[in-house]
Amino acid sequence: GEDVEQSLFLSVREGDSSVINCTYTDSSSTYLYWYKQEPGAGLQLLTYIFSNMDMKQDQRLTVLLNKKDKHLSLRIADTQTGDSAIYFCAEWATGKAGTALIFGKGTTLSVSS
Amino acid sequence: DADVTQTPRNRITKTGKRIMLECSQTKGHDRMYWYRQDPGLGLRLIYYSFDVKDINKGEISDGYSVSRQAQAKFSLSLESAIPNQTALYFCATSEGQGGGYGYTFGSGTRLTVV
To answer: Quick check: helix, strand or coil at residue B5?
Structure first.
């Protein structure tokens, strides 16, 4: 079945780069997403990548996609304390949960000054 | 006003009580979803609806029911609340399946069952 795996925690210093990794199982996924959840808030779409792309850059964010290994990563350059949040990887999948976004468990990013 | 509005924002209820969580949207999207979030478990799909006449169970629908009253409204009910239904509940909408837009989420309802 479909599944999305992420490491649960990442701690970095302000100004460093952060790399959050994700693996997914549905090879037919056409779009893959990164969502950000700040404390006490809902999820906001951060960025997404279409499956025919290897890389997408958006200001401080770089998304890398390795379709062969079903591996997705999100790199945040010059990480700031305001980037502290939970980051969720998600893919469209059809399976036990129907046709819907399947989310990873989320990676909590902690940025220290 | 928010695109996706959930009410209430917080709720404490007793075991065995019936409770309804409401969601309304101004996005004009046909597809609506209910998820619950538990620490360390991420988001799990409870129910989803592709239009007013279409309701589908998600991964964890037991103990829940939904009603799609209109394109803009999708309610989640707990018929007889139990403590392990304590969680953060999110409603979301989408323009379609796939695409570059993903979901638009509400701010969530924090439900505590005592």
So the answer is: strand
Say which DSSP state B85 is in.
Answer: G
The span from the CA of A64 to the CA of B107, in Å, is 29
CB contact under 8 Å between B98 and A92, yes or no, is yes
> Beta strand pairing status for A71-76 and A61-66?
antiparallel
Test the A interface: residue of B37, B46, B55, B101 with most A CBs within 10 Å? B37
Residue A81 backbone dihedrals phi, psi, to 5 degrees: -60, -30
CB-based contact A100 B41, cutoff 8 Å: no
Distance from CA of B34 to the nearest CA of A (A): 11
Closest-approach residue (CA) in chain B for A36: B105
B18 pLDDT tier (thresholds 50, 70, 90): very high
Taking CB atoms and an 8 Å limit, are B45 and A100 in contact across chains? Answer: yes
Nearest chain A residue to B96, by CA: A100
Pairing of strands A55-58, A61-66: antiparallel
State mean pLDDT over B41-63. Answer: 92
pLDDT in tens, A54-82: 999 999 999 999 999 999 999 999 999 99
**pLDDT, tens digit, for every residue of A3-57?**
899 989 999 999 999 999 999 987 777 789 999 999 888 899 999 998 888 999 9
